[in-house]
Amino acid sequence: MTTTAYMIKQFGVVSIAKFFGVIGLVWGFFMGIFLAIGIGGAASAMGGIHALGIGAGLAGWVLMIIIGGIGGFICGAIVAIVYNIVLGAIGGIEMDLEVKA
Prior knowledge:
mainly alpha
């Protein structure tokens, strides 16, 4: 097998932002579960109304998913922009890739 050297000169901002957005959605899904359990339990314990606790917990879960996706997209765009600026200053990242036969 032979190796070929490639250089990464620039990343697509929207492509990286979409990737980070999906990661943010997954993060928001799992963190939202913990948030929903905490809000649901606290609301149920305070008022004794279980429906209020379940509703607040579900609303918190949905909000965490939305915030995670939007926040991930924005952070991904910022990371890609900064990365492209840094790559312009240092000349890129060199990678050796192996060609599979």
